[in-house]
Every structure is written in C-alpha cells, then in structure tokens.
UniProtKB/TrEMBL annotation:
Its EC number is 5.4.99.-. Keywords: Isomerase, RNA-binding. SUPFAM superfamilies: Alpha-L RNA-binding motif, Pseudouridine synthase. This is Pseudouridine synthase. Residues 4-62 form the RNA-binding S4 domain. NCBIfam families: pseudouridine synthase (TIGR00093). It comes from the Bacteria. InterPro entries: PsdUridine_s_RsuA/RluB/E/F_cat, PsdUridine_synth_cat_dom_sf, PsdUridine_synth_RsuA/RluA, PsdUridine_synth_RsuA/RluB/E/F, PsdUridine_synth_RsuA/RluB_CS, RsuA_PseudoU_synthase, S4_RNA-bd, S4_RNA-bd_sf. It comes from Meiothermus hypogaeus NBRC 106114.
C-alpha cells in the first residue's frame, strides 16, 4: 500500500478533525510503531504499521461496512435534503462523510440497508449485471394470485416499456402477505410491479440483500458493523476479492 499522511489516515479512522489531529500530534500523543510522531504530515504505510493515539491501539481498515435496520420516515440519503437522512440513526462514533447506501429504500419502506465506503463494491452490488437478489416482505391490499407468480417469473412484465428480469413471488397461507425476490433495483420497483397487476402495496420491508439477511435481533433504527464473514460473502457474491 502507498504511504499516506498521518492526518489523512487518522481522519479516515475517525480520530477527529484535521485540526484536532494536528493538536494530538503536537502533544506527542500519536505513535507509529512505537515512535512518537509530532508532524501530522508524516507519511507511512498504515496497513503495515502499529498506530496508537493517546495509548489506544487503532486497527486500520481501508473500507467500512454497516448494516442498518431502517425504519419508515427516513430517506435513503446521507445528506439532509428532502427529509431525515438515514445517517442520523448512526451513533456518533460511526458518523462519516463518505458512507454510501447500497440500494435505496423508499421513505416509507423498512428493513435491511447496507452502508459501505467501497465504491466498487457498491457499484457491483447495485448493478443489474450481477443479479444480486433482494428479498422483500410485502403486504398487499388484495390477495396475490398464481397468475402473479407466473407473470413475475416469466420476465415479460414491463415498466414504462422496459422488461424486468424474472422475479420470484412466494405466496404463503395468507395471500395478502407475500415475499418477493428481485434481481435489480428500479425506482419504486416492488410497488410498481404489483400496481401493474392491479394491486397495491400497503407495507414493504426488505429482509435480505444478496447473501445477508436482516438479523432478528437487530431492532428497528439500530445498526451494527458487518462481521468479517459477512463482508467476505458480499465480495464473493459479486466476483471481487476482499480488500
């Protein structure tokens, strides 16, 4: 890995603002491989170095990953433009300016939302070419039918003249409560698919994205870091080597 400035590395790891990091360095509170570094412009390889700030060992990682149980009422954005962004739900220690949501959820939609700082992983997870499965729990105004199952699976359903990839509709004991698996992520896709069949979605929740499912013990509005095996599964799902 190329050498990077100390202030850039510590900023990336969320230690503080550039001004705060310079202050820590001047105070002799930053060590690299046991050596006190007072120059915030000092360059080193963070992946190969032992970094300590005020006696605390920092674990360097190039990219970051979270899962969030999104509640209704929040927009899938990291900026406060048209409503409350999902980053408002994250604890202070996980606040970053470079979070990118993996696939959007409507403001009134709940469920699993992944966040990452790796743009290449984001691109592949959301691009239709990779056909990453998204599974939704759906409540409907009217019962779903076997004909809906067949139409969704056929790949003949069109939205605005554009055909959709085949989707899997699973009808349970109550045909108003179904699960739908899609492999792309067009604007309001699930709602529009059922609308095209003369039905209406009354409740929508994403319960899985690719190899990851929403944990039953992750409360609404809460988030957690992805486990190493979960990160590896995401990279494997889209043909990338973990970074």
């Amino acid at each position: 890995m190329a050498k990077e400035r100390l202030d850039k590395v510590l900023g990336h790891l969320g230690v503080g603002t550039r001004k705060e990091i310079h202050r820590l360095a001047r105070a002799g509170l930053v060590t690299i491989d046991g050596n006190i570094i007072t120059d915030a412009a000092f360059k080193f390889d963070p992946a190969m170095s032992r970094i300590e700030v005020a006696g605390e060992l920092l674990e360097y990682q190039a990219y970051f990953y979270l899962m969030l149980h999104k509640p209704a009422g929040y927009i899938t954005s990291t900026k406060d433009r048209d409503g409350i962004p999902i980053t408002a739900l994250l604890p202070e220690e996980w606040q970053r300016s470079d979070w990118m949501p993996v696939g959007r959820l409507d403001k009134d939609t709940e469920g699993l939302l992944l966040l990452t700082t790796d743009g290449e992983l984001l691109h592949r997870l959301t691009h239709p070419r990779w056909k990453v499965a998204k599974r939704y729990y759906v409540e409907l105004a009217a019962p779903a039918t076997p004909e809906d199952v067949a139409v969704f699976a056929s790949g003949t359903l069109e939205l605005e003249g554009e055909p959709l990839q085949p989707a899997e509709l699973h009808i349970g004991p109550d045909p108003r409560k179904v699960e739908l698996v899609i492999h792309e992520g067009k604007f309001h896709q699930v709602k529009r698919m059922f609308a095209a069949r003369g039905n209406q979605v009354t409740y929508l929740k994403r319960v899985a994205y690719g190899p990851l499912s929403l944990p039953s013990d992750l409360p609404t509005g809460k988030s957690r870091k992805l486990l190493p095996e979960e990160i590896g599964a995401l990279y494997e799902a889209v043909g990338l080597r973990e970074k």
